[in-house]
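Now for one protein, fold included:
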Amino acid sequence: MDPSTNSPIVLLKDVNSDAMLPIWVGPFEANSIASEIEKAAPQRPMTHDLLRNVINQFGGEVKRVIVTELKENTFYAVIEISAGDRAILIDSRPSDAIALALRADCPIFVREDVIESSKSAELVRVDGESETDEEVEWPDEIDDLGEYKM
């Protein structure tokens, strides 16, 4: 919880370093994320469970979530779904994308330029520059998402 605003925060931590990126989320999304982390099974499917189930029933698979942009203190994300030989990108709020990623057990990525431009998020680096073992290939369609507003 952010002590100054009493708002929930999700901390994304780099797996290759101690770098962390805070993303402020709403209380319902925070509850959904926390319940999945704690593996608390609801009696009926919640919204993010429903979305995962629909994707799976239509033969899709959530491959990854990507935090793509930070504009005017608002983070943007996409959910990458594979369906057959197609890769589909769905515009999403990061909080919903993270809640779905936890349920789908898929990786969560943050573009380096988002980290660089996160002035208000104040990226914390404990051990200096982070190093990554693998080069992440970003789908070309990510650059075409600027027309969507959250």
Notes: Residues 1 and 8 are 4 Å apart (CA to CA). Strands lie at 9-13, 20-24, 60-71, 74-83, 86-92, 108-110. The chain has a mean pLDDT of 81. Residues 9-127 form a domain with the Bifunctional nuclease domain fold (CATH 3.10.690.10).
